[in-house]
Specification:
75% helix; 251 residues; mainly alpha
Length: 251
């Protein structure tokens, strides 16, 4: 894949595959497809500081998810961060928001920093900072919109989540801004790392640990999540249809 149009086409195919197979991986795929569509629109309208470079970043960035998805389907190894997200998608006890955040966790906290460094090549990493922030802003806007409209997907979510207290609130307090800031710091360290493979491995272990917190957020919130999941009893395909409708309306 060399163009954002090719990325969108492949994301369409992944969404269709997940819909047909009733795979919960489709939840993140729907969200990320819309992020890519929004970035493509921004490029065509000249919204970014360097629009041709943004297309390069988007393709490299998207390819990390697509490659991980393909590897997992074939039973091949992938990063621990994506492995946690993919394995969680096989479990019906997790709610839609968890699946979205697990995908975002792997893609922003690990993949984005790597993609940024690969995009700039020999140029200073700082040259891409503004557009780096803009792609995060697009994702944040969509995620905030999903949270605002979560009642359409999980009717009792807003009511039950009020009973989550303290550190158990990690699920709903997952911050795209904090993820963005952490991703940028990682990109800076990755840029100057002598051993880039080791740098990715260490970062991957940390982000996989964050995924564990999203998967198992504590006894209190886990009980609440179990109740919320009862309102998401529809088929995965039906949930995907509703999520797709919500996300497209936000954009």
């Amino acid at each position: 894949m060399k163009t954002i149009a090719a990325v969108i086409l492949r994301m369409d195919q992944i969404v269709a595959e997940c819909h047909q197979k009733q795979s919960r991986l489709g939840y993140f795929a729907i969200l990320y497809r819309q992020v890519t569509v929004r970035v493509a629109e921004g490029i065509s309208q000249g919204e970014f500081e360097d629009n041709p470079r943004m297309e390069v970043l988007d393709v490299i960035f998207a390819k990390r998810f697509i490659d991980a998805y393909e590897a997992y389907k074939k039973g091949k190894s992938t990063t621990l961060s994506w492995e946690r997200a993919f394995e969680a998608a096989r479990n019906g006890k997790h709610i839609i928001l968890q699946h979205l955040l697990l995908g975002i966790n792997a893609h922003i906290n690990l993949d984005l920093g790597i993609a940024a460094v690969e995009t700039v090549g020999d140029q200073p990493l700082t040259s891409i900072k503004n557009d780096f922030d803009k792609i995060n802003a697009v994702l944040s806007e969509l995620v905030d919109g999903v949270k605002t409209n979560i009642g359409k997907l999980s009717p009792v979510f807003n009511f039950l989540i009020r009973f989550a207290k303290g550190r158990d609130e990690i699920l709903v307090n997952f911050s795209i801004q904090l993820a963005r800031d952490g991703a940028w710091k990682f990109a800076q360290s990755y840029e100057i790392a002598d051993d880039k493979i080791k740098s990715i491995k260490l970062r991957d272990q940390i982000i996989a640990g964050l995924a564990e917190g999203l998967i198992n957020p504590g006894k209190r919130l886990s009980r609440i999540i179990s109740l919320i999941s009862l309102t998401e009893w529809r088929s995965v395909a039906s949930n995907m249809n509703q999520l797709d409708a919500v996300i497209k309306k936000i954009n």
